[in-house]
Amino acid sequence: MWNKLRDSLPLQLMIAAIAAWAVASLFSLNHLASDVTQQGWYQVILLGKTTYLGLLKMVVGVVVMLSLLQGITSIGSIMRLKKIGRTTLLFYSFTTFIAISLGLGVSLMLPAWQPLTTAVPVEEGVKLISAEAASGGAIAAKLLNMALVNPVAALSQGNLLAIVLFSFLLGIALLSALPEKHPLFEVLAGLNKGVNTLVSAIVRLAPLAVFSIVFEFTVTGSSSLFKQLALFALLVFALTVVHGAIVLPSIAKFVTGISIRRLFKAISAPMAMAFATSSSSATLPLSMQVAEQELNVSQSTSSMVLPLGAVMNMDGTALFEGVAAIFLAQLFGVDLTTSGLVMIFIMAMVSSVGAPGMPSGSMSGMQMVLLAAGIPLEAIAILLIIERPLDTFRTAVNVEGDLIASLVIDKWQQDEVDTEQPVTTRRLSTHC
């Protein structure tokens, strides 16, 4: 039993979460929750969360850069890199398309929500964007401003979009300029191996982080959070579960033949970490480790597909934004025409790309969706009531989608190599 507990990270995370909830519930029952946050030992418990997330923030940028560089340079040719990149972008676009279609389709088939009689006040400190910020040119400019940043500044700020773009361009340049067996590629492989060893050590602290996070959320959480928007939250949760438990695993089963049970057993640890931290970026090192060790995805595939997914593959976020737009439009009495629905669809896809991989990182994108559909920006106050707990579920689905993408794309790459191999063999035998 001890050996199983020691070797199973998902089991450790589950035990840590249950223990944290039980301990925090005891304080709540004894009406000590208000006093707990003032205690010194409470701050000590939160050090688990601070330490773990801080260590991950320290290495995640370097992990993305080195893994992408090695992944690109190990592909061997520009043509093969082009195929993998194109396949990755198409797959992520396809799953995001399904997620938004699911959310909008079900929302439109359900009875309309009752309009509000009074508007919900916007909390202090919530910054609303201007209408001009939702235009196509403004969105493109925002993405470019995020991506075209000095790589040193991007590393210090944790700007994954800029890190991915710089690493991608540098990797292509190295692949084009240097011979296949150049010593620099061996140096990259060595650095990548060293960083992955460091990440493996950091991941061992994950149960402590989960205990801290669940304890904090249970002690400080408000019960009204789950009462005021229960039906909307239930709808989003149900659709997210359908996408994460049926749609994505079905794609993996159809393409790779992997059983759903084995799939979820393999990816349970990164999904649990994504659920606890609400951060796909913080989960990225663990996702890469699991993809290679549990799903047997080649390093050249995982090191390219997963960092790209952390930046642009946000199935859960896109689904949430589509459902939320319909919900808020009906609450505020906005009559959505066909063009309005199309704008919601397009903006949900576009705004999910480059959304920060951190808790509540999709709120700026949600404002763009509201503006594009003609929904008052003040409606964002409705979502802020319930958005945080829903964020945990959709982040887990985002990470699941990344892992399944790496599995599917790696299978396609292997099939392509297998089909090319007999042709090469026949050519060699002919020459002999």
TrEMBL record:
InterPro entries: DAACS, Na-dicarboxylate_symporter, Na:dicarbo_symporter_sf. Pfam families: SDF (PF00375). Gene3D superfamilies: Sodium:dicarboxylate symporter. It is a multi-pass membrane protein. Keywords: Membrane, Transmembrane, Transmembrane helix, Transport. It is found in: Membrane. GO terms for molecular function: symporter activity. It comes from the Bacteria. One of its GO terms (cellular component) is membrane. This is Excitatory amino acid transporter. It comes from Vibrio scophthalmi.
